[in-house]
Amino acid sequence: MLNAPPRRALNITMRPDGYSFCILAGGRRPRKLAQLIETIHAQDLPRYEIIVAGAAEVEGVKYISLPDYAAGGLTCHLRNAAAQHSTLEWIVFVDDDIVLTRKWCAALCNHHSPGDMVGTRLLNLDGTRHWDWASTGGPRGQILLDYGEVDQHHYLTGGLLVVRAKVWEAVRWNEALRYRQKEDVVYSRDAYKRGFTSSFCGGAIAIHNDETYTQVGRRVPRRSPEGARIWMAGSLLPASVEYLVARSEEEKRRSRIPEAADCLRLAIHKSPGCVEAQAGLAALELAYDGPVDSGSWQPSPAI
Questions:
Q1: pLDDT per position as a tens digit, 75-115
Q2: Measured by CB atoms within 10 angstroms of the end CB, which terminus of the chain is less buried, N or C?
Q3: Which residues on adjacent β-strands are paired with residue 222?
Q4: In 101-159, which ranges are E strands?
Q5: Cα(68)–Cα(5) distance, rounded to whole angstroms?
Q6: Of 57, 3, 117, 32, nearest in space to 301 by CA
């Protein structure tokens, strides 16, 4: 176990090539943390290291015990503490509810124009997009962008962010900010102000291991706890197309848009030619600022 380090500068010019995975662990998702670590090991990288900062000690990795920071939502402190112990050229900031697909790192290594910061595809458990290439603070609010789309309000999600070590050495996470205080937006903007560049690697795909999220149009709303349980259990899989379309209307009346979208997508999955379901889903997506480059919704979890 390592202690939180004092602030010091690293000689980044001496860093060997490789990936330092800096994981934030709140201590409440040990199974998901274990899944993430397993998928990192499965990448078959020649040189990498795993650093966990927070409240969940695991074997075989560098561990920085900061349970009070984790409990207090001090995500920026945790990211900085983990990165302080990193030794390789690329730093991967990643939350403990992310899972990497088998070829995530292979796609990243083959990315021809990585720049200083790299965004990768981040999908929800149902195959739709999470906040992987997005914009916020502009006239449209927080929205998904088409992959590679240029927008002056673009930011990179802190849930899975790949940066060169020199970026973190020049731009630390703002420790005045806590969880859900747009700390990743501030970090992205600070890095851009310093002249660092970003790119998008569409071949590197990861999964956000949280069943409450789905994509509707250009937004990523959350299912209700009941709606998440229904989707995870596949409770509506036996339902008829007619029932699903009718149920979508009831979900809309209850202002449960993710659940309405689930019903319509399942209806289309069962009957691709169902005009009523297609029209209903298109209307939902338009109301949520769509259309946009999207993932492929699935009726059951990807993992």
A1: 999 999 999 999 999 999 999 999 999 999 999 999 877 79
A2: N
A3: 213
A4: 117-124, 134-135, 143-144, 154-155
A5: 16
A6: 32
Would you tell me how many other CB atoms lie within 10 Å of the CB of residue 256? 19
**76: number of CA atoms within 13 Å, CB side?**
17
Mean pLDDT for the chain overall: 94
Token output for 172: 């630390």
Scanning the structure block, which residue is given the tokens 């409990």? 71
Higher pLDDT, 148 or 74: 74
Cis peptide before 67 (omega within 30 of 0): no
Cβ 76 vs Cβ 173: under 8 Å: yes
CA dihedral sign of residues 152, 24, 81, 177: positive
Which token pair is 253? 């009346």
The answer to whether 214 and 126 have CB atoms below 8 angstroms apart is yes
- Count of CB atoms situated within 10 Å of the CB of 11: 8
Cβ atoms 294, 218 nearer than 8 A: no
What Å distances lie between residue 190 and 11, 120, 135, CA to CA?
A: 21, 20, 15
Spatial distance between the Cα atoms of 39 and 57, rounded to a whole number of angstroms: 18
Q: At what angle do helices 257-270 and 241-253 cross, to 10 degrees?
A: 170
Say how far apart CA 94 and CA 50 lie, in whole Å: 11
56: Cβ contacts below 8 Å, ≥ 6 apart: 25, 26, 27, 29, 30, 33, 96
> How do beta strands 19-25 and 48-54 pair?
parallel
Given strand 143-144, what is the order of strands in its sheet?
143-144, 134-135, 154-155
